[in-house]
Design brief:
Keywords: Amino-acid biosynthesis, ATP-binding, Cytoplasm, Histidine biosynthesis, Hydrolase, Nucleotide-binding. With 107 residues, the chain is mostly helical. It has six helices and no strands. Helix 1 crosses helix 4 and helix 3 runs antiparallel to helix 4. The structure holds phosphoribosyl ATP.
Length: 107
């Protein structure tokens, strides 16, 4: 069991982006702009969906890791911290998804 967390990966991505290391995939990707980062996130989402529906458990794990990495890159470029996303998730914990949907679609 690893103690590696999404917050650790967020910190690494932030450090790479700040340092501008030449050998960094993160730096190269961010250099291509927000639209490219978002496009890569979309591609990884589709690959995750494919792994899920084909029932390949190992592939699903790998694609989910790619997806989370690319999500963190998009959050970084969009200037949104993981803590903000976690705060939003925490805010929702008192309400079921069905209640939230009903409140959103009412009236
Ligand atoms: N977790 C990841 C991670 N997940 C996926 N990827 C990269 O995301 C890319 C997505 O796969 P593709 O097949 O679409 O890649 P590609 O064809 O090279 O992509 P493009 O040329 O289209 O951008 C691959 O090159 C993966 O290596 C990642 N790259 C980096 N990290 C971690 O991010 C941290 C910083 O990495 P560097 O910025 O490279 O130092 C390190 O801890 C890494 O382990």
């Amino acid at each position: 069991m690893t103690s590696f967390s999404l917050a650790d990966l967020e910190a690494i991505i932030g450090a790479r982006a700040t340092a501008g290391a030449e050998s960094s995939y993160t730096v190269k990707l961010i250099g291509k702009g927000q639209a490219k980062c978002a496009q890569k996130l979309g591609e990884e989402a589709v690959e995750t969906v494919i792994a899920a529906v084909t029932g390949d458990r190992e592939e699903l794990c790998k694609e989910a890791a790619d997806l989370l990495y690319h999500l963190l890159v998009v959050l970084r470029v969009g200037n949104v911290s993981l803590a903000e996303v976690e705060a939003e998730l925490a805010r929702r914990t008192g309400q079921s998804g069905l209640e939230e949907k009903a409140a959103r679609t009412a009236g």
